[in-house]
Amino acid sequence: MAVKEMPALPNTASQAVDIQERRKPLGRRIYEGRVAYTMIAPTFVFLLVFMYYPALLGLYRSVYKWAPGLSADFVGLGNFIQLFTKDRVFLNSMDHMLQLAAWYVVSTVGVSLFIAVLIHRLRGGRAQYTFRLGMILPVVIPAIVPLMLWKFIYDVKVGPLNSILIWAGLEDWTRAWLSDPNVALYAVMLRNFPWVDGVAILILLAGLQAIPYEIVESAMIDGASEMRRFWSIELPLIAGQIKLISVLTIMWGVQEFTAVFAMTQGGPINSTMVPGMWMFFNAFRINKMGYASAIGVVLFLLTLVLTLVNMKFITTEEY
Amino acid sequence: MSAAVTGTREQYRRTRSEQVGVFLRGDWWRIVLLGLFLVGGIAPLVMAFLISLKTIPQFARQPFALTFPLHWENYGFAFEIVLEFIKNSMIISGVTVVGVLLLASLSAYAFGILEFPGRQVLFYLVLSLMMVPSAMTLIPSFVLVKDLGLMNTYWAMILPWIASGQVFAMFILRTFFESLPKELFDAARIDGASEWQGYWRIALPLSKSMLGVAAILNILGTWNNLIWPYLTVQKQALLPLTPGLWAYQTEYFTRYGLTMAGLLLGSIPLVILFVFTSRWFVAGLTSGAIKV
Question: Smallest CA–CA separation between A264 and chain B, in Å?
């Protein structure tokens, strides 16, 4: 047995195994890990072909002027320079993206927090359960369905939004919501009213329910009001969940263009263009694949920066 | 002193209402507010349902209120088209989720339970992919799928979705496997079980609910994808549900009754899935919290 050769007595059995393991030559350890390598092999085959290769290809193509079937010309950082100095549509699309992402964060956190606190304060267990379930149900409807329904709601001739405005005597307010460049971005932004987000509600509710009841109780004994209970106890204790939801929403908002794609395709006159949609347009409508790849790389860098900021943010503020 | 009484009264009311099942006591304004949010969220679906029972002239006369006779045949018409989309979606999402669970659980077992040189490095190599946005790989993936001759096949969606879906699934499964007691696997090894048996006989049966969570999340993701199938499939007969409904609405846009019936029918499969797996749904949706 190898136990005899060991210099110091290990504390635990697993530590003994560790020391034993380290002594073996690398080649032997690799050979003994053959089952593990076989188990991860399929994963890596898929990742190499469908993830790493496209990601690197995207990086590589972003410095070329390239259309499929034609020869690719190396342009260095030309695509990026053009994006940030000459391309008004792209710069505007970044602005639109920021507005959308900011709104998504505000509405998701605001509305979900309000609903989560309301549900948390319900006294009946069954009522809590019912509303919690009710709030998640919309997640089950395929995402395309509300997009299509809201496209219809905004319709200039038959859409219910304009009908309601006319019924309320506000005829001047009626618009071609999705084809008026002045309001189209806001129409896309404000879809899905009243902005119930089941996932965010679940996360916040879980945070609220994890607060020990003794803390809340002692505050109430000291005479804290309902508002005080929220601002001074619950809000600070679920700050982590709020931060998490904000980060997830921002990251999603940077890349997301399905809503724009389904509702307006970036129009009218690019008033709802977002970077993802502009990338799609360049790549698949006018065949500027290299240029579109550069937009993809910009989105990647943006996500990377956000992730790094977020990692720093969360580790330093943990308590 | 009076404040202390309030505290106990609150507690008393809490337990009492749970025991008796009193629904409304002391909560009525909260329930009304929450109810308004629910109604607001569901209103578009109700609208869709009312319109789905109308013919074109009925819609022109009275767009929103119920009009008689009810034209249920709109559903019959929509069903024939949507059924095809649903079938495609079930095949695509189904094969994808099986592939994802198989690959992810195998590599999660290796990374979580086994020891081998390079374990950490390889794991971080996989993890780093969570930072690559799908926008960045969209164009090169499209070119790749085209070069591989997969356009207009189910594989154009299944293969890339297995590759991208397994990353997150592997991540949550590994965390779960690591939490299992090591002694379980040591005991099996001493009894002469191979690692494959450890994976198949111990790890998998213990992680059924985690596999369920991973599966639900994966299905939701693939089911709702619009852009990728739109790019890779031009044949109407192969379209999955999400781009299918989109194309369907574009085609029948002014025949509102048919459009709305189609959208509602298309919502049914996920609702059924939810009814049978709501526990995993809830766990899965909050497990997005691990992602950061």
Answer: 12
Phi-psi region of B62 (alpha: psi -120 to 50; beta: other; left: phi over 0): beta
Residue A50 counted as domain residue: no
Domains of chain B plus CATH, in order, are 2-52 (no CATH), 73-291 (1.10.3720.10)
What is the ipTM for the molecules in this complex?
Answer: 0.83
Res A316: pLDDT = 42
Residues A181/A269, Cβ–Cβ less than 8 Å: yes
Residues B208-225 have pLDDT tens digits of 888 988 898 899 889 999
Say if pTM beats, i.e. exceeds, 0.90. no
Kindly state whether residue A282 falls inside one of the protein's structural domains. Answer: yes
* CB contacts < 8 A (A, B): 298
pLDDT at B281 over 80: no
How many structural domains are present in chain A?
1
DSSP B65: S
Q: Encode pLDDT of A151-190 as tens digits.
A: 889 988 888 898 889 889 888 888 889 988 999 999 999 9
Q: Which of A143, A220, A299 sits opposite B136 (nearest CB)?
A: A299
